[in-house]
Amino acid sequence: MRGKFGFGFGRGWSAGFGCEMPRVRRGDMKYLLLEILKEGPRHGYELINGLEGTFRGYRPSPGSVYPTLQMLEEGGYVTSEQVDGKKVYTITDAGRKLLEERGRSRYEETPGMKQSFEVAESLRKLASAVIDGGRGSDEKTMKRLAEIINKARKDVYSVLAES
User: Fold this and answer.
1) Phi-psi region of 154 (alpha: psi -120 to 50; beta: other; left: phi over 0)
2) Which uninterrupted H or E stretch holds 81?
3) Which is nearest to 27 in space by CA: 76, 72, 74?
4) Prediction pTM value
5) By three-state DSSP, how is residue 138 classified?
6) Tell me: the pLDDT tens digits for 55-99?
7) Cα separations in angstroms, 121 against 11, 109, 114, 128, 159
8) Rounded to the nearest 10 degrees, what angle do helices 29-37 and 44-54 cross at?
9) C-beta atoms surrounding 146 within 10 Å
10) Could you tell me which CATH number the domain at 29-102 has?
């Protein structure tokens, strides 16, 4: 997504700012989805949001979630039904057994991940405020916003130079 000022901040943009993004090993997506479904039935985007909330900073793409759900359904690990026009998935006994056989989750946060995500979230909020504030603003306001951003950038470099 590109804002009025020509820079883009979409999901996952924080990876470019030195954040260590959690990695999901090939084949682990099915277990992550089943873990969320243990809590109760969910539709696809609820699962995606659930993963994002459980594993800070990790937001899987629909292109990785929906094929995995289809595979889980074909394997008998989940069932689905249409509820209010959305496909809602429910874990089966076979899905619970698959989780038990797997054992403990292999996902672990790396050192410093929490702080990196907090900084990235602060930057996202700042970018949102600047973009919102810049909409329809006069030239004087735009100039003040640019001055604030430039000062913040210089302050960040000063902090980095000290560390």
Assistant:
1) alpha
2) strand 78-83
3) 72
4) 0.53
5) coil
6) 666 778 888 889 999 999 999 999 999 999 999 999 999 999 998
7) 11, 17, 10, 11, 19
8) 100
9) 13
10) 1.10.10.10
Q: Is the dihedral of CA 127, 128, 129, 133 positive or negative?
A: positive
Q: What's the token pair of residue 144?
A: 């003040």
In the block, tokens 């698959």 appear at 98
Direct distance between the N- and C-terminal alpha carbons of the chain, in angstroms, rounded to an integer = 33
Alpha helices in the chain (DSSP H): 29-37, 44-54, 62-74, 93-102, 113-134, 139-162
Domain boundaries, the chain: 13-18+112-162, 29-102
Place of tokens 């590109």: 2
